[in-house]
Amino acid sequence: MKSEKIEIFDTTLRDGEQVPGCKLNTPQKLSIAEKLDELGVDVIEAGFPISSPGDFHSVSEISKLVKNAKVCGLTRANPKDIDAAAEALRFAKRPRIHTGIGTSDSHIRFKFNSNREDIIERAAQAVKYARTFVEDVEFYAEDAGRTDNDYLARVCEAAIKAGATVLNIPDTTGYCLPEEYGEKIKYLKENVSGIHRAILSCHCHNDLGMATANSISGVINGARQIECTINGLGERAGNTALEEVVMILKQHPGLQLYTGVKSRMLNPVSLLVSELMGMPVQPNKAIVGANAFAHSSGIHQDGVIKNRETYEIIDPAEVGVNASTIVLTARSGRSALAYRFRHIGFEVTKNELDFLYEEFLQVADRKKEVDNDDLSAIIEKVTRKIG
Ligand code: KIV
Ligand code: ZN
């Protein structure tokens, strides 16, 4: 079986930037867009041009800057939004308009006070209109996660007929189970006529902590694009984390799916986004959290010191982290202590280590973490004691 590419659609600058407190100015967006392009993402969703003059300007500037990736602008299903996106994307080498409408019963009833047939008509009109400006039009069926599959298939069919090149199936509320989301994608692959003319895209939110699992289930079942953000930023509990899906596909070659992302840039790009958005990354965040390659319990440390693979499934260098760390706490053992002493230039005998370890535990019980200064002080104290 031949390995197939999964397109990475980064929406850090659109869905990610919607997060309270994460707003960026144009120069900040440009530095992130430049890095995303270097990282190797396939699509950069640069913003929602109609939403504000500032966002329009950012999308326009990003369009001029980006060399390789497609640049995308979000719209609702109306001509004014589409006009603004087309204008903002005027300078993009590879522009994409991302237009769409809510398709679940609650969106149709409460947001649009409308009916299913009218929504299909509006979806088709929006795609058709967007195609008068660009060749690449992505259609989103907002709240597809809670839209019944038969109706969703009809909406997708109309969007393809109108000229959509990508069909985005968002689990907008993060409600789907991975199996259910995968089945939805499979159903669309098998039941939408003309589906060979478009690719299916996963856009999953993390309200129940399943965004990454749902996206992976989506691509296993035939989707060929994942929409995601650096550090999993996004509305409410966030979107699928880019670094997670990229590394899952890389660490599981048996899936026969790959991305074009340069994984060694993941950590530096995560740090850049966190710093510019003023949004710290939780320490236990998969792949890019400060503790993702830190070992602190004695049993784990002993294993990792003997062979990294005992407790690490990824070589930290693969994601741009210099090395794994052995953190000294009251749960650490002698082997970790000796290892850290060696790192600061002290080779200790087994006998000396016994004395040092007793003293170490006294310090470790008082402090959350024992650092190199503490280790030097321990050596000094024990040397004085035992002469
Ligand atoms: O979550 C969602 O449904 C979205 C769409 C606007 C694509 O972000
Ligand atoms: Zn979203």
From TrEMBL:
Keywords from the named record = Amino-acid biosynthesis, Branched-chain amino acid biosynthesis, Leucine biosynthesis, Manganese, Transferase
Q: What class of enzyme is it?
A: transferase
GO MF annotations, alphabetized = 2-isopropylmalate synthase activity
Sequence ranges assigned to domain Pyruvate carboxyltransferase in this UniProt record: 6-267
User: Does this UniProt record's set of keywords contain Amino-acid biosynthesis?
Assistant: yes
Q: In which pathway does it act?
A: Amino-acid biosynthesis; L-leucine biosynthesis; L-leucine from 3-methyl-2-oxobutanoate: step 1/4
What Enzyme Commission number(s) apply to this enzyme? Answer: 2.3.3.13
The parts of the chain that form a coiled coil are none
GO BP of this protein: L-leucine biosynthetic process
Lyase recorded as keyword: no
Question: What Gene3D superfamilies does UniProt report for this protein, alphabetically?
Answer: 1.10.238.260, Aldolase class I (3.20.20.70)
Q: Which family does the UniProt entry place this protein in? A: Belongs to the alpha-IPM synthase/homocitrate synthase family. LeuA type 1 subfamily.
**Protein name per the record:** 2-isopropylmalate synthase
